[in-house]
Amino acid sequence: MPSTSETIQPNTHLSASSPAERGPLLFVVEDDPALREMLAAYLQQQGYRVTTMASAEDFLRRIERSRPDLVVLDVGLPGQDGLQACARLRATGDRLPVVLLTARSEAVDRIVGLEIGADDYLGKPFSARELLARIKAVLRRAPTAPGVPRGDLAPTRMGRYTFMPASRCLQSLDEVRVLSTLEYALLAELVASAGQPVSRERLLSATHGEADAVLPRTIDVAVMRLRKLLEPDPAEPRYIQTVRGRGYMFVPAGSGPTELKA
Q: Would the pTM count as exceeding 0.90?
């Protein structure tokens, strides 16, 4: 349990269901109701928007609809535990920042948490101030990671969808589809250079960290997935076109056909 006497005070103005108007969005996934609500109140006092949930299953469903800036994820959850949820997240290429909470004190448990892709690991009992400091540190590192929402891009129409860069999603009249980190980073890089060929090497750099060992073929596979999602006819792409010998290019709606297409 965090040291509530030093930092968490009762808050009559904010609750987990009425988040702060501005600030990064945090998911707090914790099955202990008292701790969950205290963390929500404290983090909201610090200027964060907070959504709480009690299970990993609920968390994994929610990120398909709403994208947080960071998740505080308890390891000892009922059903699917926090380590399994983090591993599932990373297996899809999702780089959502994760801070794990655990009552386990063994070093091997902390090592496993970091090895499966958690950004930080905090053992219980913990100081609320220390959790806040770790959240801030992880968020400071996050903007350099692939998939961070880009504020320099405007919403862009692509067939029946509108690409919403700030919320990492594709939106239509009847659907909102949250993109994975790889899908988002790839599409954002192409849209940022609309009408200009982008090399596979540059797309790899935009979608993966320097330490990731990936092949250029990874980009080809990701482009195929995006085409199946966006293109009226993926075999004859309209928006994401191949430029022979140079990579890929996003062609905005309303632009004429290009002779660079392979």
A: no
